[in-house]
Structure formats: structure tokens, C-alpha cells
Amino acid sequence: MFAYVASVLFLAKIGSGVLSLLASIGRVSWFIVESCMAGFMPPYYWKQILQQVIQIGYFSLPVVGMTALFTGMAMTLQCYTGFSKLTAESAIPSVVMIAMTRELGPVLTALMVAGRLGASMTAEIGTMKVTEQIDALTTLSVNSHRYLVFPRILAGTIFLPFLVFIDDIIGILGGYIVGVHYLHFNAANYIHNTFTAMTPWDVMSGLIKGAVFGFIVCVMGCYHGYLSNRGAEGVGRATTNSVVSSSIMILLLDCILTFMLF
Amino acid sequence: MEYVIEVSDLAHSFGRLDVLRGISLKIRRGESYVIIGGSGSGKSVLVKCILGLIKPKAGTVKINGMDTATLSRKEMHKTLLKCGVLYQGGALFDSLNVIDNISFGLVYGYGKAQKEAYKIAMKYLEAVDLGPEVARIFPAELSGGMRKRVALARALATDPDIIFFDEPTTGLDPITTCVIDNLIVKCTKEVGISALSITHDIASMKRISDTVGLIHDGEIIWEGSSSDVDTTDDPHVRQFVDRSLTGPFTKS
Question: Complex ipTM above 0.85?
């Protein structure tokens, strides 16, 4: 009898967890549909879109660039540790290039943007929600999804691939700096080995990932901001949830997309 | 009789908690209606339901004779443009300066050119007794009273038929409270705008109201003119107005 009750309770717990997950997916999906429907209909808020483009595409450059540079440098050193044992040092430039363009570029860029911009989006929209600024937008006849959410999603989806591209270049450059100036590779050979193995698809697949991740980071940032309540504590919790859920989604989707774009 | 707002049997609940229970009220053109009541009695929810910010579970809301539930999104936007709202904390947009805040509804709601909107905004900034030197300041740099005045200017800038005041004088010193009250009276008596206000401030209520409704547990339990408030024997009104600890309102 006890085992029966325990198993029923266990199944009920799993069931409620699944239902809650499905409800969350439904809410996020509806949020996306509502925002995109509002955004594609006039009036278009070009100024807001431009502001977000500058925020995402320009102000994220230093942090993304530094991450790429250090990752590229460290990766070259780590590769050297392993590859030198196999006397395969000449493969290091290609490996660094493939790792940066296909994997590290999009994932690290997205994670940095999630930490920097996703969190700030949630905090900004969350504060607007708890201080009734979103209600004020509505009563001033401005669709808050069109004004606040769509410009962020659009800018994130279009400009994260741009950041990924910059990240790729700086990451490969970081590898070059360590390879040539620290490990004393021949510069011409290093460049030759980098680009011989490169295909357009290596870069393209990373850019596709970047667009998907940009969309996810901005949707999560705005969605959690909209869910904020109960003052500063609620905004803080929403910001944490936004960064955690964005990061998990990035890593999960990275795995799925890698299988799809392999 | 022409009513700008007609609310019939409005009901709303959050989960199992009934917040509004069949509220009905009518506001005439140019009338100043003040709702008083304790914290958590449903005053703010009532205003949000009237403005369509919360979809009520039951009942109808008519603004300028139009049932808001049957309006298309576009029609609702047009209706809302005729409603100004002064939120409790002002709800000024932090990222915009004072002049951009005031002209916001004109630019994004009415689609006016920025230059024209600024001109109108400056006029309303002056109307709330603020000088042009405030125009480029951001909300974070303003005092509580100035924020309320800027928020009032923003509410007035779209030339509304009705203004909603959510606790307009909360947290203000007595003099600033008087200034805000006078501005509200100016709006209703001189400009002829209808007003629905929520307040806990009895002195302020007496200054700005034509009609007063006392809300308790999601119901309007007393309604009368501003002068009736002092003469009524209703125990609820008496306890509330006289700030008495004993009476029908029990606080645990």
C-alpha cells in the first residue's frame, strides 16, 4: 500500500513538473507571437531599434572582443600541449579556427551577451513593470511589445551574428598572436594552415547559431522582465532567472544545432 | 445626462480572492469622483479594470458611451488617448528627460512631429508651474512633487476627456499636496475634464471631489456628494473620515 501511494505521488510530481514546463513553453511562445505580431505592424519605432542595435552591436564589442582574444590565446596553448605530443602542431591553426567559428565564437558571444545585455534588459523592463511604466505606455496608446520587446528581439537576432563574426576574427587573431609570438610558429605557415582548412560553412554555421542565440537571449531577457513583480526583490529574481534560462537554452540549442548543422 | 464613465457590476478576482464584487458607478462630464477606502480594498484594481489594464471577470465598462470590451485594439487605443493617468509614483519613463516624457503620448500616440510635440509639452510644463529649465532633466533628478507635476503634465498633454489620479498626493508634504490638489481642481473646474481619483488623504479628497465613493472589500458601500461626507451618519464613512480605531472596519 505504501509503495503504491509513494509511486502515485512520484508520478503526480513528475506530471505536475511536465505540465508546468509545458505551461511555461506556452507562455513564452505566446509572448514571442504577441511581440512579433506587434512589431511587424506599423507604426515602426526605428529610433528604439537603432538604440538596441547600438547597445547590442556596438557596446558589446569590448567584452566580446576580450573574451574572444583570451579564448583564442588559451586555446592555442592548450592545443599545443596535446598536439605537440602527437607531432601535429601544424593542425593547431585549423583546430583553433574551426573551434572558434563553429563553437566557441557563437556560444561564448551569446553567453557574454546574455550576462551583459539579457540581464540589463530584464532589469530595465522589470523596473518599468513594477513602477507602472509599462501600464503608462499602454495608457498612452503605445503597444509595449512593439516599443520595448520587438526592437530588442530584432536587434539581437540580426546583430549577434555580427558579434559572432567579430569574435571569430579576434579569436583566430588571439591564436595567431600566441602561435607566432610565443610558440614561434612561422607566421606565413600559421595563416596558411588557418585558411586552408576553412570552409564558408564553418563561418556560416556559427552565424546561424548566433542568430538563434541572439533571439533566445532577447526573448528571455524581455519575457522575464515582463514577469517581474514584487518590487526590487522580484526584479532581482527575474534577472537571475533570465540569465540562467538563457544560458541553459544557449547550451541546449547549441547541442541541437550542432547535430543539425554538422 | 452624459456620462464619460459607466461601470456596471464589475467583478474581478485574483485566484480565490475576490477583489471587486459587482461595482457600479457613473461619472458625468466635468465631474470629479473620488474613491476612498482602505489599503487592499480594490481601488487600484478598479481603475486598472476601467482602463483595460486588467481584464475584469464580469461586468461592463463604458468610456464615452463605448463598451470597452467590444472595442477593437485600434478603437481602444483611440479611447485610451482620451484618458490621462497620473500614476502613484508618477511612472515617468526613466530613460527619457522631462520634455520627452511629456511629449511621449503626442509623438507615439498621436503621431505628431517632435517639434510640434515639444511646443505643446512646454505649454503643459508651464501649466503645472514648472519652468523650461526642468525640460532637459531626467526623472531621477526630480523631487517627488516635481515628478507628480511632470506626470500630470504628461497626462494633460494628450488633451484627455477624463483623468485618473492614483493617490496623487501620497508621500508629498502638505504644501506640495495643496499645489497638486489645486492643479487637479484647475483641470476639472476650469478645463472641464472629468476626474476619477483614488486617495487616502481626506483633506485632499474634500478639496478635489464633487462625488465621493467609499470602497470596502471590493464593493462601493457608500456614495455621496463631497459635502455629505461631513454630515453622513454612515459608520464606515465616519470611521474612515474621523480616523477612528473603533467602527465597522476591523483591523487585526
Answer: yes
Residue A38 contacts B where some CB pair is shorter than 8 Å: no
- A 143-172: CB under 8 A from B: 147
pTM of the model: 0.86
CB-neighbour burial class of residue A10 (10 A; exposed 0-12, middle 13-18, buried 19+): exposed
Rounded to a whole number of angstroms, the distance between the first and last alpha carbons of chain A is 51
Chain B environment of A138 (Cβ under 8 Å):
51-53, 80
Beta bridge partners of B211: B33, B225
Check CB contact of B92 with chain A, cutoff 8 Å: yes
Is residue B75 within 8 A of residue B66, CB to CB? The reply is: yes
Q: Is A136 on the interface with B (CB under 8 A)?
A: yes
Bridge partners for B23 per DSSP: B10
> Is the Cβ–Cβ distance between B213 and B42 less than 8 Å?
no
State the Cα–Cα distance between residues B117 and B105, nearest whole angstrom.
Answer: 9
- Concatenated DSSP letters of B29-98: TT-EEEEEE-TTSSHHHHHHHHTTSS--SEEEEEETTEEGGG--HHHHHHHHHTEEEE-TT----TTS-H
- Best interface-test mutation with A: which of B94, B108, B166 has the largest number of A CBs within 10 A? B108
Looking at residue A15, what DSSP letter applies?
H
**pLDDT for A86-140, tens place per residue?**
888 889 999 999 999 999 999 999 999 999 999 999 999 999 999 999 999 999 9
Q: Does A131 touch chain B (CB under 8 A)?
A: yes
